[in-house]
Design a protein that fits this description.
Shape: globular
Helix content: 25-40%
Largest sheet: 11 strands, mixed
CATH architecture: Alpha-Beta Complex
Structural class: alpha/beta
Strand order of the largest sheet: 1-3-2-6-8-7-12-13-11-9-10
CATH topology: Amidase signature (AS) enzymes
Distance between the termini: 31 Å
CATH superfamily: Amidase signature (AS) domain
CATH class: Alpha Beta
Radius of gyration: 22 Å
Strand content: 5-15%
């Protein structure tokens, strides 16, 4: 059950009921295209609409657009969504305080455990699997007043950064061009949020899968520092790299959700690294002048015009000039000494089989399988997942990677990854920079039928996840008229507030975000 009124502490004080309401007026449906978390919350609290009407509106949009258009973002609609909305309306009518995400209908990627909706990880092998409890982030957003409106499609087992194709639910298209890919693996959340089928959503990122789909669908997506956010209850791909977090249409919405989901979780040992480092309110960093006097660097290895699409590279050059107009000093041609050598020095652990065995244990007697090797043996997978399953099958389901031969320790004890992190921070310190930048993808979204063959330009892999760094992507315009591109901003560990501030300043000055044309407001 959604836990609506367990929010406490400073966040509660900041989000109490608004004093002036319109409860004497009959609530009416509100427009939902590009509507923000704050707009939904204010309209419900002021009585201009009801939570039921909001949820009904989003459900109508899903029914009208998702399958009929061929978007394919939604996998399961929550049959309890309206009942939860009604409980929120009743509580507000009784004068109870509202959480910071009050009546926020969210789209949740199919690898987050939800006790009331199937969680398949994009695999037919887990079809119908109902976990015994919610993932940490799902629980936190529900406690803050959000409604899990629906689950969303993803790349099978989160293997693919190229596209979002699952054996459990099929293919997701890009909301801006239905013949293009939204990238992977959080493409369902990304296209669903871009098309305003929900107000915002949750995704995961092992190497690309929040930032890439966000870039391809003109959204804001953030990958946190490893240890700042919990992955408990998320089907793993590589636990020492996996990150979960928000995808949203605005920086403010992303920061609001991040404020709710960031923080220590005793069920995720990595969050011991970030214990006490989460800010209570990341929206406090949203300053339109945040870039003034800051020093940013262009990462040369990720901005080579010879390897980039000309139109996307032009957008990046325009973004650099905009950053300068906003008062930032931008250093061209910046590099991290020894980066390539660090990335070649065994910084990746093939631990999928081990991590999945631990996840399947949490399902208890409900687990449809006990070892992902069973999936390979049974053939219960799509063609896109075959290579990944074969690659990871050689790993052990029972031996932790740190005890394997050769050993592959967890992030905090991994010499290669810690050396890479130290090299990045040292290079930033030596150059006196606050963050570095590059295009999130240096090529536009590939055609859907050639997403694998034309996979190029993915700049999110490698450096950022290996070093455990925080990175945010924000829209930087459209190439070829309608194809989104994103600007990625990377900071030092634990600098998420700074990154939100930089992204917000850029977003407010440029207003690049535009709604896709194929999903207009429904007539009433």
């Amino acid at each position: 059950m959604e836990l609506f009124f367990r929010w406490s502490g400073p966040a509660l004080l900041a989000f109490l009921l608004l004093p002036g309401t319109c409860r004497g007026q009959a609530p009416a449906p509100m427009e939902l295209v590009e509507t923000s978390l704050g707009e939904v919350r204010a309209a419900v609290l002021e009585g201009r609409t009801s939570c039921r009407l909001v949820v009904e509106g989003y459900l109508a949009r899903i029914e009208a657009y998702d399958a009929p258009s061929g978007l394919g973002a939604i996998t399961e609609v929550n049959p309890r969504a309206l009942a939860v909305a009604d409980s929120i309306d009743r509580a507000l009518a009784q004068g109870e305080p509202a959480g910071p995400l009050a009546c926020a209908p969210l789209l949740v990627k199919d690898n987050f455990d939800t006790h009331d909706l199937p969680t398949t990880g994009g695999s037919i092998a887990l079809a119908g699997s109902l976990p015994p409890r919610d993932a940490f982030m799902v629980r936190r957003v529900r406690e803050a007043g959000a409604i899990v409106l629906a689950k969303t499609n993803m790349g099978e087992w989160a293997f693919s950064p190229r596209q979002s194709v699952s054996s459990s639910y099929g293919t997701t298209a890009n909301a801006y061009a239905l013949d293009r890919t939204p990238a992977g693996s959080s493409g369902g959340t990304a296209s669903g949020v871009a098309a305003s089928l929900g107000v915002a959503g949750l995704g995961t990122d092992t190497g690309n899968s929040i930032r890439g789909p966000a870039s391809h669908t003109a959204l804001v997506g953030i990958r946190s520092t490893i240890g700042l956010t919990s992955r408990q209850g998320v089907i793993p791909l590589s636990f020492d790299r996996d990150i979960a977090g928000p995808l949203a249409r605005t920086v403010e919405d992303a920061a609001q959700i991040f404020s709710v989901v960031a923080g220590y979780d005793p069920d995720d040992p990595y969050t011991e690294l970030g214990r006490g480092r989460a800010e209570s309110d990341y929206t406090a960093f949203l300053d339109p002048d945040a870039l003034a006097g800051k020093r940013l660097a262009v990462l040369a290895s990720h901005t080579d015009p010879e390897r980039a699409d000309t139109a996307v590279h032009r957008l990046f050059l325009e973004a650099v000039e905009e950053l300068r107009r906003l008062g930032a000093e931008v250093v061209e041609g910046w590099s991290i000494p020894g980066m390539a050598e660090h990335l070649r020095s065994g910084v990746f652990c093939p631990r999928f089989r081990f991590d999945m065995a631990r996840y399947l244990e949490t399902l208890g007697d409900r687990a449809p399988i006990r070892d992902v090797v069973e999936v390979l043996e049974s053939g219960a997978h799509g063609p896109d997942a075959l290579g990944g399953l074969r690659s990871f099958a050689s790993g052990s389901a029972d031996v932790h990677p740190r005890d394997s031969d050769p050993p592959c320790p967890d992030f905090a004890e991994h010499p290669g990854r810690q050396d890479l992190l130290a090299a990045v921070v040292s290079a930033m310190d030596d150059s006196g920079i606050d963050a570095f930048i590059f295009p999130t993808w240096s090529h536009p979204p590939a055609p859907l039928d050639r997403a694998n063959l034309e996979y190029r330009g993915d700049n999110s892999q490698g450096l950022v996840p290996a070093a455990g760094l925080p990175a945010i992507t924000v829209p930087m315009g459209f190439s070829y008229g309608t194809l989104p591109a994103g600007l990625q901003i990377v900071g030092r560990p634990w600098s998420e507030g700074t990154l939100f501030g930089f992204a917000y300043a850029f977003e407010q000055a440029t207003a690049h975000r535009q709604a896709p044309s194929g999903f207009p407001e429904l007539s009433r």
